[in-house]
Amino acid sequence: MRIAVVGAGTMGHGIAQVAAVAGYQTRLTDANLSAKDAALARVRDNLDGAVKRSKLSREDADAALHRLAWLDDLGTAVEGADLVIEAIVEQLDAKQHLFRRLDGLLPPGTVLATNTSSLSVSRIAEATGRAERVVGMHFFNPVHIMKLVEIVTHERAAQETVGLVSEVARRMGKDPIVVRDAPGFASSRLGVVLGLEAMRMVEQRVASPEDIDKAMELGYGHPMGPLRVSDLVGLDVRLAIAEYLFRELRQPHYEPPAILRDKVRAGELGKKTGKGFYQWPREPS
Question: Which of 100, 132, 144, 206 has the CB geometry, 3.0–4.6 Å to 158, for a possible disulfide?
Answer without folding.
Answer: 132
